[in-house]
Amino acid sequence: MIENKPALEVSDSEIDLSAMDIVLTEIMQSADTLWRNGESAQAIDTYKALLAEMPSYSDASYKLACIYLDAQDLVNAASFFEQAIQSKPTAAMYWDQYLHVLRLSGDEQVLQEAAFLRDQFLNSQGSPVEPEVSHEHVDLTISTEKNDSTQKEIMSPQVAVSKTVSSSEKYLSDLYHKGKFVEILKYTEKATKKNSGDSLAWRYSGLAFIGLQKLDDAEIHMLKAVELAPSDAIAQFNLALIFVAKKKYPAAELSYKSALATNPEMLEACNNLGNLLRALKKLDEAEFYFRKAIEIDRNFAVGYLNLAALLREKRRLSEAKYFAEEAVRLAPNLADSHNALGAILQLLGDSKSSLIHLERAIALRPDYVEALFNIGNIFFDQNEILLAQKYYERCIKIDPSLASAYRSLGNILHTLGGRQDQVESLYRKALSLDPSDSTAFSSLLFFLVESFKASPALVFEEHKNFSVRYEMPFIPFWPKHTNNKNHDRPLRVGFVSGDFFNHAVSSYIGSILKELSTKTQLNLFAYYNRDLEDEVTHQLKSNFVSWKSVHNYSDLELAQVIETDQIDILCDLSGHTTNNRLLTFARKPAPVQFSWIGYPGTTGLRAMDYYVTDRYLVPAGDAEKQFSEKIVRLPVCTPFEPYKNSPEISPLPALKNKSLQFGSFNRISKISDSVIYIWSEILNALPDSHMTIGGLPKNHHPEEMIAKFAAKGVVKERLTFLHRSNMEGFLKQLQTVDLCLDTFPYTGATTSMHGLWMGVPTLTLAGNSSFSREGQAILQHLQLEQFVAIDNDDLVHKAVFWSSNRNDLASIRSGLRQRVLQSDYLNPNKIAVAFEKALRVMWYQWCDGQPITSFNVDD
Description:
Strands 3-2-1-4-5-6-7-14 form an eight-stranded parallel beta sheet, covered by helices on one side. The protein is of the alpha/beta class. 54% of the residues lie in helices and 7% in strands. Residues 1-18 and 124-163 have low confidence and may be disordered. It is elongated and about 110 Å long.
């Protein structure tokens, strides 16, 4: 009647919740789930635990009262309604339920006194009723085409009043559809003065106030209509719409259900209730109402669309695809149907079909930001970076408030080695628009690690800021773990990663997991945060007693799963890299938690107890002050697994060539202006030398980098640029290089190890942080300190030295593979033994209630 669009639309701009609100939301949702599942006792305990921390949290008091009311425990119901009212005396809904309890109790005197107090609070000084603010966070992104023809087929509840319509109702209906709201109010004011029990007049006056955007007045008048005619489904429906507009979501849910209790076939109520429940994360109940809407009208295209969106959220993608296809069949000109189907096909890995539907959505609605953003994501995943960039930029042009587009554009410019100030600006813009976007903050931190402008102290400070923003609200609600504190029992160890596929992290940890899986005192659990599986994934699975794909779990749901699995020690393998689950770790689902391998620095989290590394990456002393975690040192941080089909080491090219061939295969995001400056100094000091820069993203054109070298006196003829290759191609490229030059401050690690395996050492700078010390640490482990420079001048000096001592460089080259073979890097069993010892020390410290301390397991 007042809103004949079928989907509840709540934009991000309407939601402004603090981090504490998010915590409260999750605890409330947990209690709500218990209540819905019939576990009232546990729900009561959860609500009461919340109130113990925040006695003034009125929603918790209110829901406790509702549970007791359902159980006919009127004494406790009244008590908690009173507590809710004390916290928020201007909430009409609290008063109404309280008065209902008093009526049931039969105490007329108390009822009259309470009714008097209600009027005093709600009508004092003529102030409107304070809008009820729910802590149940709504984050709904599915929208529907506002002007699509299919929506016109949705019958307004007002029109479908009855087969017999009174003349006054017809008159008011005509006025409403003509937008003559003031005339409606004049008419209804007279009607209600003549007959205060005229529910129809109160209903239409409520609608008129909605039309005039006076929601407080609309609520008062529609409540009066419902009070006079509780079985008026239309009034209940419109009251629900008012509650949604005022963000009184629990009240809206109750009103929709009241409308359906009177008229179970009310399509609009089914659909809108489904959208509301989905927004409140009551997904199973939402699915019920969406399916009911489709049963009512098998041609209800938007119902199929909404059900598809819900099933997609529940990761039931095959079902979601079917209902999205039905939506497209029923409404081929509905842009949202094509966008929904395209997004689902993308998740199913059918990018080609996905693009067809997404492009159709844009043809129907050229400024459709969601579809444009989805296309950008497809191209980004396909490494079509420049194409993706165009779509993200187009999104921002259409909607300058779209935070995720700024983050994605920042990721692209970071990947392409764009100007550091511009990249940082994009990430900070995304965070200013959406402070709750922890992914954007992690992207910013990862960028700062690579930035030559950010000091280690600043980088650490920003990591701590991540904790303040996203972790601190959870700390008061960390679970009190009851794991069996037997020192020597088998441990349940969980590993959380988004990189259990053909990825550098898997190449490091695979051999250790194979060793650990044979240990009778360890039971390994995997929580894989990605839907990509390949041969590496299948190999890794065999090492775990339990494997769960958790990419579709919320941070809270994953934390609950980990708690249910009774994990003793939980390992983070991502840090602030892509697909991390740090907000799960922030909830402290396991008694002991540590970070390892995936990220070369602190997480910043207080919930992360340890950071596992080695003595060269994080030496004792000042280096430890850059971590919120305590430091655990293994013989080496990780093993190295060479490529099985590696070619043999080739002779030093410089023995045949007149010039020395330098190389770099690190990500170009690490190649800052400062790096180019030093590399140019080296090339200018050796005028006959050349340099190969590999690892460029697909379709990346290095003109900007060429110009920067030219500005330093290095002509493009001395530079060779190579795009990213497969491993076999990469190792062949290394055969053409005499000496690699490292990036800074974020040095190479995996690429440096592959270079050493192929006989090519990397000339690196000594660092002052864990992320700037990786190249140095590798060389120290292999006793190759002669390739570590203490400063920029020394780096140039060492490059000139090795150019003049090519026979020595050739000798080192020929023996490097054997040197790597004899090192701890190729001894996963030794690392696994040390790692198991480290786990046991961590466990002892927790069992005994000891302070968490750093320790070494070097032997």
